[in-house]
Design goal:
Phosphorylase Kinase, domain 1, alpha+beta, 2 domains, two-stranded antiparallel sheet
Length: 299
């Protein structure tokens, strides 16, 4: 599990050759630890330390974020090390220094904020297209990582069977859907709404990057905003403003909501097997997450 003392962080950041005035921990993070880093002249960065087990997808996400930024999307890309690498490999995990993206997290009760989320997500899909150069083969559709997880991870048989059925259904439906590079975890806290202009809105935290039907990201929004049921409708309104063709895919939205719950089932089964407790109050938290995923698979 990624962890690092303040002094060790400052020592590691010296690899970038940038002056650092200080660093303060940021909240959140289930698979990584983050800090807000300040320079003596006021510039801000985000340092992110990923668990060793997440190194592959994390580095892929850094490369995709850099590509998105180069194509006009504010994405919080990595600051390159002097030798050109996007991250430093340490005993504690993989450390990246990211450009800080200012802005506010969308208010789930604000129709305007949610529409801006949808616009930004559609812009991200359009900018990235289906270029999988930076995405490892297991993360490409039809998702060898999911098949491997359902085969190898310890999980209750009824959860495994329900998840496998959903994955099979999604693979059968995929020829009818548009496929591309997706963010993979677009919750509210991945969006930064600019106080200056919607054109400067940002989408950050690319560590769950995948190739998938574009619908998957919208299904993620549906699951991650489930406590505000009307939120998805407004996000979809914004998405359609950029990409009206998404309407053809939406008949399969309910299926891909269940695909997202399948991903949750694999995620929590993996955490249980490895004993990872970050983000939950104890082992029961991961068990509750797996039970909730199973309920979502059956909905």
């Amino acid at each position: 599990m990624a962890s690092m003392s303040h002094d060790r962080l400052l020592s590691a950041l010296a690899c970038w050759g940038l002056p650092v005035a200080g660093a303060e921990p940021l909240p959140g993070g289930w698979n990584s630890t983050t800090w807000l880093v300040r320079s003596p002249t006021g510039e801000r960065y985000v340092a992110k330390l990923a668990d060793p087990e997440s190194a592959g997808p994390f580095v892929s996400g850094l490369r995709v974020a850099a590509r998105a930024q180069s194509r006009g999307l504010v994405s919080g890309p990595p600051v390159a090390l002097p030798d050109g690498r996007t991250a430093a490999e340490l005993d504690e995990g993989v450390l990246a220094l990211l450009e800080h993206v200012p802005g506010t997290i969308p208010d789930p009760a604000s129709r305007q904020d949610l529409r801006r989320m949808g616009v930004l997500l559609a812009r991200a899909h359009r900018a990235l297209g289906n270029d999988t150069e930076d995405i490892g083969e297991p993360l490409r559709w039809p998702w060898a990582w999911a098949g491997d997880g359902l085969r190898d991870l310890a999980m209750p048989p009824h959860v495994r069977q329900a998840a496998a059925r959903v994955l099979d259904e999604a693979r059968e439906a995929a020829p009818l859907l548009r496929i591309g590079v997706v963010h993979g975890d677009p919750g509210l806290d991945s969006f930064r709404l600019s106080e200056h202009s919607p054109a400067q809105d940002g989408l950050v935290d690319w560590g769950a990057i995948l190739q998938a039907p574009l619908l998957y990201d919208l299904a993620c929004v549906a699951v991650l905003t489930r406590d505000t049921p009307q939120a998805l409708r407004h996000v979809l309104d914004g998405y359609r403003m950029v990409d009206p063709a998404i309407a053809r895919d939406l008949d399969h939205l309910d299926l891909f909501v269940r695909v997202r719950w399948m991903a949750h089932a694999i995620y929590f089964a993996d955490r249980i097997e490895r004993g990872v407790l970050r983000g939950v109050s104890g082992p029961a938290g991961n068990e509750e997450g797996l039970a909730e995923a199973y309920a979502g698979l059956r909905a």
